[in-house]
Amino acid sequence: MKGTFVPIQESKRIVSIDVLRGLAILGIFLVNMPAFHSPLLYIDGAERWSEGWDGILYRFSDVAAQASFYPLFAFLFGFGAVILAIRSEEKGISFPILFTKRLGFLLVLGCIHAFFIWHGDILINYAVFGFAFLFFYKMKGRTLILLGSVCYVLPFAILGSLFLIMGIFDREGMEMTTDSAMMKQSLEVYQSGTFTEIMTQRALDWYMVNNPFNAIILFLSIFPFFLIGAGVAKQGFLQNINQYKRQLKAILIVSLLLGLPIKILPYVTVYHFGTIFVQDYFGGPLFTIFYITAIALLAEQAGDSRLFRPLSYIGRMSMSNYLFQSIVCTAIFYSYGLGLYGSVSYTTGFVFLLALFCLQMLLSLLWMSLYKYGPIEYLWRFVTYGKKPVMRR
């Protein structure tokens, strides 16, 4: 190492990126909430919450949030990695070494989160897949965007077509099912099990999502957005919004016009695995693009206004807020807390989500008025740079 690396100054932060991180935390919370209070892994949510406000709010969340915010988080991960790489080169510091430290911290934190707090962790995947990014980050921006797009669209277009065709010839075989045995086990353990039993169930639930077969799908659905985010950062689209305003507006309109019909596809045609797959793997990312362009354009117009400040503060301590949601929700719904697992309606969970997120905005605002970093972000920087950042303002 030749230089001394310091975290990015506040005046040089990209407002839209902080706001997008905050929006991602809200969107991920919308997706995660029913899994916090119900055995969502083993049931069909649309069937369970099909009437009244439960049905309305479930479908709203499914259309607005499902499969749109994990890609957004991956996009931001790649975007931030390239900014770190550029600044590392300017300082004469090895980016692979810095990035490996960041990924190592993320992996340890993800393991603690997944196996001791909540099974629905995303940090482990981001950390493991992040090591592959070291082989690509030196590519040109346009190459990264093209490569990421092809690596995403090609496999999922093939799979989506196959599932839709299968749905035509074997509609019954493509219907969503409920795993009654695992649903019952999940309810019993999280409602009244010991902490050890909950840890065992948590590991089973984690493996249900992260088994070797699913790991391939997860990689193909996450890593391409690392590349796309990195490419966008290299091209400077979000750093120079005025220069690309016309293109961003066109992308916003196209992504919404294409994304919305695909997002509502299972509810206006046939509801089965094929249409849900297309909804998630194509409608989800199209809405991701819509959110990115919409926030970028709005943030550029509003600047550092009060309108976006609460979300930007959430975004600046996004990892702390992400873990805070898991800690609070498992404490409320699991047996070692209030034990409300399985007894909360979708509407009740939705209202609780809004209340907790409003509290997070307030706490983030208060915290960031006193400190420069969130508590987890502070530790992350300390591990990455090897020295204590200045915490107090």
From TrEMBL:
Domain DUF418: 233-387
InterPro entries linked to this entry: Bact_Transport_Assoc, DUF418
Residue intervals passing through the bilayer: 20-43, 63-86, 98-116, 122-137, 144-169, 215-238, 250-269, 281-299, 320-338, 350-371
Lineage top rank: taxon: Bacteria
Organism: Peribacillus simplex
Designated name of the protein: DUF418 domain-containing protein
UniProt keyword annotations, A-Z: Membrane, Transmembrane, Transmembrane helix
A Pfam family assignment: DUF418
